[in-house]
Design goal:
alpha+beta; 11 helices; single chain; eight-stranded mixed beta barrel; disordered N terminus
């Protein structure tokens, strides 16, 4: 009999020998790995089939993750009811003992890994509903685990890369009873805001570092935000947006002059010139930096104004609303911060990703004659222009660290300002914090 007709049996699988070899070579070439002499043909085939299965599952994974993005706003009239249902669900989880911890020892886990900790990970994801029980307790990090991890990451405001690193492990290891208490705390907040918020409004959720533009009960757009540092917190408030400043000046707040600008000038006397910041007294007379004693707080007595342009700290537009904290929403030249899952870097103001989409919506819904082309043209011109909205838009800057939607998806965020008061630990104890 010819070699092409010879067969071999491996674990009940009957394969043509020449076919096994061919598939082995395809699998190894497809994976980009060198051919290992000690790898059996069956092992190569199984590896190939496993990778194909992962690839086939990828689109389904992405579709399921996209389905988690609800068009319902975080502050919908029904949100409190959804959270009450989530409390019942988490109460049952706590009653049966909660969930176990994931060991932080070893390399980050990702698809393709084989590790005893994957069993712990599977058990944890099953407990919170991020992985079906039918997925089993294998030590292999397969596409089902990958999808479960990404789902968990999205629900917790982490970058959904499917990699179980330090930040994901910290979130996984928050005990179920603390998550339950977090839901109970936020239910009170949500009930206090469950009334009519307006046909159109903007909501900034500070712990989520996220902005929603809501119209007629549906989210028209969501925007990643950068909000205040722990020691320079973004305030909780209700107000109304009334004005946009295109290509704005930035007047440096006194607190930033003291905390940031004076130290930077002591390090580099050319700092103001490099950043196009000019100094004025309050009568409008311009001063040079040499006229100020930078070893004292004298600089706080003057007005520091940054010129419009690419490096302006407010970017291309500032969104104004009345408040006593002297904060506002604005663009930023530091776009890379939006790509982080920790976005607490500002001095209290809120930086907005894709700000042009937001301001186009603000203008189209209130001020006739404005569209995206007009917005782009004004920004491109570099000219200063202030636009008063014909109708003011309600703005809610809120602090919500746990919520749920109609599909039963439960979201949690870190209690970055320690307002939930769930821990006796100090704020720097990141292993214990939400």
């Amino acid at each position: 009999m010819g070699a092409a007709r010879n067969t071999a049996r491996y674990g009940g699988l009957k394969l043509a020998s020449s076919g096994v070899v061919a598939l082995s070579m395809i699998a190894l070439m497809w994976s980009g790995q060198p051919v290992a002499a000690q790898q059996s043909p069956l092992e190569a085939l199984q590896q190939y089939q496993q990778r194909v299965e992962w690839e086939d599952r990828f689109q389904n994974t992405m579709d399921s993750l996209r389905a988690m993005e609800s068009s319902a706003p975080t502050l919908s009239p029904e949100t409190a009811d959804y959270v009450a249902a989530a409390i019942d669900r988490y109460s049952r989880i706590v009653q049966i003992g909660g969930w176990g911890r994931i060991s932080g020892q070893g390399r980050p886990l990702r698809i393709g890994a084989t590790d005893p900790r994957v069993v712990e990970l599977r058990q944890r994801l099953i407990a919170s509903g991020d992985l079906e029980q039918t997925a089993g307790l294998s030590t292999t990090f397969d596409s089902y685990v990958d999808a479960g991890v990404r789902r968990f990451q999205m629900r917790h405001g982490l970058i959904p890369d499917g990699v179980v690193g330090e930040s994901t492990i910290v979130a996984l290891n928050v005990p179920a009873d603390l998550r339950l208490r977090q839901l109970e705390t936020n239910l009170v907040r949500l009930r206090s805001m469950s009334g009519f918020l307006g046909d159109r409004y903007v909501m900034v959720n500070i712990p989520a570092a996220e902005i929603e533009a809501v119209e007629n009960g549906h989210v028209r757009s969501r925007h990643t935000a950068v909000v205040g540092k722990i020691d320079r917190q973004t305030p909780i408030l209700n107000s109304k947006i009334y004005e946009l400043n295109f290509n704005p000046y930035w007047t440096v707040p006194r607190s930033i002059i003291r905390k940031d600008l004076i130290p930077k000038m002591n390090q580099d006397p050319q700092y103001l010139e490099k950043n196009k910041i000019r100094i004025f007294d309050w009568s409008g007379n311009e001063l040079s930096w040499q006229q100020i004693d930078w070893n004292t707080d004298e600089a706080t007595q003057y007005k520091f104004r940054q010129e419009p342009g690419e490096i302006n700290s407010l970017g291309t537009v500032r969104i104004n609303f009345h408040n006593q904290h002297q904060v506002y929403l604005h663009d930023t030249p530091s776009k890379t911060l939006f790509g982080s899952d920790y976005r607490f870097h500002s001095s209290g103001c809120v930086r907005v990703q894709n700000v042009r989409e937001l301001i186009t919506w603000l203008l189209q819904s209130t001020t006739p004659g404005w569209d995206r082309a007009q917005v782009d043209a004004v920004i491109r011109s570099g000219a200063r222009e202030d636009v008063q909205l014909k109708s003011k838009i309600p703005l809610y800057m809120t602090y919500i660290t746990a919520w749920a939607n109609a599909d039963g998806v439960i979201h949690f965020r870190e209690d970055i300002y320690n307002r939930d008061d769930l821990y006796s630990a100090t704020p720097i104890d990141t292993q214990a914090r939400l």
